Amino acid sequence: MRKSKFNETQIVAMLKDAESGIPVADLLREHGVSKATFFKWRSKYGGATVSDVKRLRELEAENAKLKRMYADLALENAAIKDVLNRKL
């Protein structure tokens, strides 16, 4: 997946500018962003502050780590059950 050239702080600042009354078309032209990208950002980060976005990123990383841990344990558990069933 391609990395955005804007970080979360810049995205939140752009959304705040749009909320403050700057026309969206002018804002998009100034920053070189498409309408689709802007509205996708607005649906994801709308009403959020910079600290909220950083916390969201931390939670997503922790969630991914926990999912990997669960997958490893489930695989190990299935292998142990398979070995035990063969011995019986």
Q: Largest sheet, described in full?
A: none
The low-confidence runs, each spanning 5 or more residues with pLDDT under 50, are none
The number of helical segments is 4
Classify the helix fraction into a percent range.
over 70%
Radius of gyration: 22 Å
Global outline? rod-shaped
Order of helices and strands: HHHH
First-to-last CA distance: 47 Å
What can you tell me about this protein's structure?
With about 90 residues, this protein is mainly α. Helix content is about 80%, strand content about 0%. The protein contains four helices and no strands. It has helices at about 10-20, 25-30, 35-45, 50-85. It is rod-shaped, with a radius of gyration of 22 Å. The model has no long low-confidence stretch (mean pLDDT about 90).
What is the gist of this entry?
With 88 residues, the protein is mainly alpha-helical.
Helix and strand arrangement:
Elements: H1 8-19, H2 24-31, H3 35-45, H4 50-87
Entry keywords:
single chain; 88 residues; rod-shaped
